[in-house]
Amino acid sequence: MLKLTAIERSAYRSEAHALKPIVLIGEAGLSEAVMKEIDNGLNSHGLIKVRVFGDDREARAAMYDTICTTLKAAPIQHIGKLLVLFRPAQEEKTAKVLRKTVGGGMREVTIVKPSPSGTKRPTVSKVMLKGNERVTAGGNIKRAKPRQASAKKSALKST
Q: Do the strands 74-79 and 82-86 form a parallel or antiparallel pair, or are they unpaired?
């Protein structure tokens, strides 16, 4: 089970306030299919709400503990029939960038983007960047914006 500080739990609790439950646990209880859905929800969202139908509070608390220990998630909140769980993202879906500097301020960058479905090969592209361009986390190329100058400093320079 993942341990969080009280401040982190409080922040996640406030973040989860606006969420709707994405997994509903019915009469069948904590089946393998339900555990798989909770795992998928934690993988895609990180912070999820689970609604448990049933009036037995001890059974809900036992389910909460079982989910947290089995899926290595952090218990955030158990209020009534709602369970709030958190697990940090296991794998970032961002582009990898490999750089090689070429003379004259130009640099060759290899951008590796994972496939959207995650089952196919990643796309690899080699791009030449100018000195004022950068690659974002998503693998897009952006120009660096000129730095803003302070009005006071520009007034001092002109006098």
A: antiparallel
Q: What is the largest CA-CA distance in the chain?
A: 79
In this structure, the answer to whether residues 31 and 66 fall within a common structural domain is: yes
Split into its structural domains, the chain has a count of: 2
Q: What is the CA radius of gyration of the chain?
A: 24
Q: Other CB atoms closer than 10 Å to residue 41's CB: what's the count?
A: 20
Per-residue model confidence as pLDDT tens digits over 34-84: 999 999 999 888 899 999 998 899 999 999 999 999 999 999 999 999 999
Distances, alpha carbon 28 to alpha carbons 32, 34, 64, 155, in Å: 10, 9, 15, 73
Q: Quick check: 110 and 125 in contact, CB under 8 A?
A: yes
